[in-house]
Amino acid sequence: MPLHENWAFVDERKYTSVSIWCPLVDSFEENGTLQVVPGSHKRFGEVRGPMIPWELENIKHEIIKDYLVPMNIKAGTAIVLDDSIVHYSALNKTNQLRLAIQLILVPGEVPSIHYHMNPAKSKEVVEVLEVDTEFYMQFNPWKQPEGAKRLRSFNFDFKPMDIKTFNQKLQQPRFDEPVGFVSKLKAMLA
Predict the structure, then answer these.
(1) Alpha helices, H only, the chain
(2) Nearest to 111 by CA among 151, 156, 51
(3) How far apart are CA 147 and CA 130, in angstroms?
(4) Of 106, 107, 126, 161, which is least packed with CB atoms within 10 Å of its CB?
(5) What strands lie across the sheet with 149-155, from one edge to the other?
């Protein structure tokens, strides 16, 4: 699985969706275990969907080389991860399958959303669609979604990131934190 963040399933400035990842066999680096960039959740790619360009695309090889931590765990053990965390699975270099189950959980009190961009129409406009479970069962990421309620659209200003900016953003507040929250918290703890 290439380096990526899961799609955004909720408005991540207000809510968090998580994935539960559970390997069905012991999972380790040799068989392509899940690897994460610690602290990368809610710092990159606030708008994520199948047709939306990813700001980390041009630096993914550097991230893979220098930032990942493998999640070596036993079969049946689960990892809960924020869907916005940067993660990756390397090639399985063994002769055995590395099977895993992934569940995505969205807070019950909020609707699930889907960010959709149609590059044939515009590479600058993103539609926000309200979707349900059935949407994902029938969904083709390369086609215009049908039957989803359009909540709004907005202009998307895509800016590829360099590794220096990536490092800086890893140290900055998450995009869901109120402005000044981290500095106030640090002052309280000092």
Answers:
(1) 60-66, 133-138, 163-171, 181-189
(2) 151
(3) 10
(4) 107
(5) 112-116, 125-131, 149-155
Q: Which two tokens stand for residue 24?
A: 């069905």
Rg of the chain, C-alpha, whole Å: 18
* C-beta atoms surrounding 51 within 10 Å: 16
- Residue 182: CB atoms within 10 A of its CB come to 14
DSSP 6-45: PPP-S-TTT---EEEEEESS-B-GGGT-EEE-TT-TTTS-
Strands (E), 24-148: 34-36, 69-70, 79-82, 87-89, 100-105, 112-116, 125-131
CA dist., res. 54 & res. 70, Å (int): 22
User: What is the block-wise mean pLDDT of the chain (190 residues), using blocks of 10 residues?
Assistant: 96 96 96 97 95 96 98 96 97 95 94 93 94 86 83 95 97 86 57
pLDDT at 139: 83
Q: Which tokens belong to 119?
A: 């590059």
- Check residue 144 and report its DSSP letter: -
Residue 43: both structure tokens together: 């710092």
Closest C-alpha among 85, 93, 48 to residue 69: 85
